[in-house]
Structure prediction request, 1105 residues.
Amino acid sequence: MHLLLFNVIDQIRSLGWSGAFELLRNGIVLGSLYSLIALGYTMIYGILKLLNFAHGDVYMVGAFLGFGVLTAFGGALNPGIGLVPLILIMFAVAMLGSGVLGVGIERFAYRPLRNAPRIAPLIAALGVSFFLENSAQLMTNGFQYNYDAFQLGGKNGNFGPLFNTVFSVAGSPVTVVQVLVVGSAVTLMAALIFLVSRTRLGKAMRATAFDQEAASMMGIDTDRIISSTFFIASVLAGAAGVMYGLYIGTTFYFMGFLAGLKAFTAAVVGGIGSIVGAMVAGVLVGLVESFAIGYVGGQWSDIVVFGILIGFMILRPTGLFGAQAIQKV
Amino acid sequence: MSISPGTPDVTPPGDPAESRIGVDSWVAESAGRRARGRGPAGLLARGWEWSPDSLKLLVFVGLASTLPFWLNEGDLFNFGLFTLLYVALALGLNVVVGFTGLLDLGFVAYLGIGAYTYALLSSSHYGIHWPAEATIPISMAVAAIPGLILGSTSRRLEGDYYAIVTLFFLQAFGAFTNTANPTLFGKGLTGGPNGIPNLDPLTFFGYELNSTKQQYFFLLLVVAVVAGALHFINQSRTGRAWRALREDPLAAEVMSIPVYRLKVLSSGLGAAIAGLCGAIFAATFTAVTAGSFGVALLILLYAMIILGGLGSIAGVILGGFVINISSQFLAPQNDHPDVKRWLFYGTIVLIVALMKPWYRAVLVLAGTIAFGYAVHAIVSATTAATWTSGAPVAAGSRSISQVIQGFVVMPHATATGAHGNFNTWLYVGLVVAAVVVRSLSGWWRLVGLVPTLYLTAMVWENILAQNPSVTALILFGAMLIALMTVRPQGLLGSARVEIV
Amino acid sequence: MAEPQPLPEQPQLQPKALLELEGVWKSFGGLVVIDNLDLVVNENEIVSVIGPNGAGKTTLFNLITGIYPPDSGAIRLDGESLVGLPPHKIARRGAARTFQTLRLFLNMTVLENVMASQYGQTKVGIARAMLRTPGMRREEREIRARAEEKLAFFGERLMGYRWNQPAYSLSYANRRRLEIARAMATEPRILLLDEPAAGMNPSETHEITELIGKLRDDGGYTILVIEHDMHVVEGISDRVVALDHGVKIAEGTFEAVATNPRVVEAYLGTSAAVTK
Prediction:
């Protein structure tokens, strides 16, 4: 443990300010993906008190849908249409497809279990997750597929504009795709906040999350509201999937599992049910991961990240912003 | 029995056979009578209920001990040894999930810890060759430690939160054994992705268990002892307290039950059983690798205890048999390539046959067969031959091959390549069709079922049979979902009432 | 241990205090629920707590049984402090309760419910249970006998075939009875009954009134009871304590408390004060 600490200090020295900024940048970009997925967890948990294990896999399906669109238009090297419309179509198809998938999952796996014992929907969720993951493995033969986004928009095999530098801080570049990811994540979150706080649907969602029975007595069609929640949550996850594809590139059938786990923790850290909390905590989890990779080293980083997350869950299960709940007797 | 002064005379509990129609007790028992049903199934259910638990265990051990005499070495390993190992593991998991209601998703890590402990203490990795009578208790103790620690987090974490923290633990364990592999005494502790090979066989007081048969009988003994011990614990005050705290932890706590301590105890006991299984696992495979202890195994174990019925020891044993045997038949290499096909179609026919009334089942099955031949005829008449010239995978006898080829539309491999993502669309189509059929009702559902069943056969022959091991995982996932909606108590569990 | 000890018949000049609360405070996020409460329950006494909804009656029970810790103040059972003890230890010390909302172990049988709550007074651990030693079997027999004895307290209501029925199959009134039986099986010195007559019809209410008297006279329990039904309160109470907003506003015989102007005001005033 002592040695590990010295290594970390050495690593911090050798990476310097520029390295630190790079880690910060990577953490923020990765974190905004976690935020988008965490929002889904927090919305679904808020409304159904269900840990939707399958949510991470919806994100995976989103990434593959984006890849499918890319392939259908001829692949990164030779797309049949311009860069901007292509990316827009990728987002649209992935978001819509994931949304429909999410609604389907709710309708057929969770809705029949509304009044079942607590453990039943959780196990069904494990089942859905396992089903989706392995179906994807079957469809993709277990291979990894790469968006090759650096070539997108480039002519004749040249690099495209996505990985060009927009600006630099302390000598470390920030690229177009990083700005794109953070920018679209922020836009989506802003839209979500508007939807939840300003629209009739948002009001109904909050009411249903607060007390489903009372909401349905007040004339709210709670089944429809729950479906809408799953749709929105899954749309966000699908968008995150495409962003991941554009930014990191590699999609494979198991990618949703770990990302989902970390995003769920972000939702808990942010205080489950809290939308702003999930956004902030998603970025935090991204930062923890990024700095752990940079300073602790790849082989131990997962253990450090999971250790921190376990510690947090145990010490403060109500989240950063959540209040201690009073047990009703 | 002593009665406090002033209470009225108490009649002993009435014999159920004596109660009369219409009397309170008869009414109270009528639900149970109806659930048991009539006919041979009802008789079986009643016989099951009446036979004492010791008799059940005896019958199980008796039947299981005949296996080595009619299975060859390889089959005994895959179908016998493996099943018993899984059953023992599932019994341990059942303590945590079934008895106490803690959703532990890190359980497989305890198995891994037990296995690695055995590997380090009985192999040439560090040159330590301790006998099994020492390593097995040590493996159990070492595995129990994280079980106790994780169990102690249940004071603050409930339900889903506990599930996620234990799942993190499993991930951290995987990362530790696979990538971290810290150097200790000049060697990687866990051997990284390659694991630790060349382990000693189980050796008790100088007696080596070398053959599969010996190991099988040893495991049978372990399963019988573990099942018996757990049964006794379940009937003791500890078992009652576990059930009580699963029902209502707060009420249990107020009724003098130390909820927290009992949760830790259950987690530790489950982990110790997993540690025992880990040591045996390592010894029978003579190697441990980091990849063995992952989420796939975890889901397999959950499928076992849930199919059998949470909390029911007999159910867990049954679930272990069903799940392992079906997953063994679906393993990529085995000597019975045809069996998986029969199992698959058999299960489907069985599920359809459960439909009431019986003529509906006949209609659907006959309709599917007719529909299939019709589709096949149309496709072969209107498209190129490559669309129907595919051959079924490893169909043993020629006649089965021909039947399948004449019934299922199977494009030749070159055709699927030419027709793009035929398989993907086929699979997605089946999932969508299943979803649509579920939402239909009455006769429409029957009508929808016919093409869906045919699509199932197509997907099976074209996709699933080609990748049986992935198929097994998909089917277990689907089974979990279906079971939760149709029969959450599993095969042998009792239905639970819960106020939500 | 197996047999309930009849109370020693000793002449007592000064009634002996069994449960004592001194200056107990409890607030939830600024809202004071129990406000500097003093309360004494003497041995072999039946004390009723009355008060409008939200007066802090159930919170009082939660404080005594350790579900919440008090913010300040002392709670003593037979001279020993209960503050800071976990609920199962308090139960072991001799305070058992029922729940207003009924919290039975629904999927366990009637008999098992009453057997489960004897955990605190029994000793056999898992090692002896696994081996099924003679000591374990003897204790198991004792547990069962004691459970049957507690159930016999309710006459025919919870007898015979009902023993092996799951608790969820019981009627509402029988569930209330089973809750009392379950609490009795922890061998308490004081029974805390939270609205034992709630939701019962008049004849069942009458029966429960008699039962509470019998619990004290035959069972030897000291009883603290929360009740809304004034007929029940009148029928059973040695002493009545009225709470309002966590403050003790009156204490004494039923007649004295029922006619106390502050109590009358608390009840009549609530309809105006609580409708927000």
Summary: Chain B touches chain A through 53 residues (CB under 8 Å). Chain B has 21 helices and six strands. The mean pLDDT of chain B is 84. The beta strands of chain B are 122-123, 128-129, 183-184, 187-188, 203-204, 207-208.
